[in-house]
Amino acid sequence: MSQKDEFHNLDNPSDGLLRELAPGLTTRIFSGEQAMLSVVTLAPHAQGTLHHHPEEQWGVLLEGSAIRVQGGEEIPVKKGDFWRTPGNVPHTMRAGPDGARVLDIFSPPRPEYRKPGSGFGTT
């Protein structure tokens, strides 16, 4: 395998493993041995399903605005904000009027995200 295969681009819609999470929410998955990146695109006012999983998750809002629902709290986030979601804490996100794009980082990688499919996995 060439090291060139280890390089990706956030703006290339055909890069990564595509997964539809919910209506108006898609992600492109990039999985390594110890960590996984997920580039999530949310349509204006789209909202994910409240869910949880054992993996630790970090997120950064790349574009737009949103409300991060985490552990029963609703926290507004803007471009450049980032957060940590400990394992098994219920969470979701609701996009603002212009939509949002989020980079999520999971450790360890989520097994259900290693293959094509739909949905968030564990609830």
Automatic annotation (TrEMBL):
Give the residue ranges for region: Disordered: 78-123
Protein source organism: Bradyrhizobium centrolobii
**Residues in domain Cupin type-2?**
39-106
Any Pfam family hit: Cupin_2
Q: Which domain of life is it from?
A: Bacteria
The name this protein carries in UniProt is Cupin
Q: Which PANTHER family match?
A: H2HPP ISOMERASE
What InterPro entries does the record tag this protein with?
A: Bacilysin_H2HPP_isomerase (IPR052535), Cupin_2 (IPR013096), RmlC-like_jellyroll (IPR014710), RmlC_Cupin_sf (IPR011051)
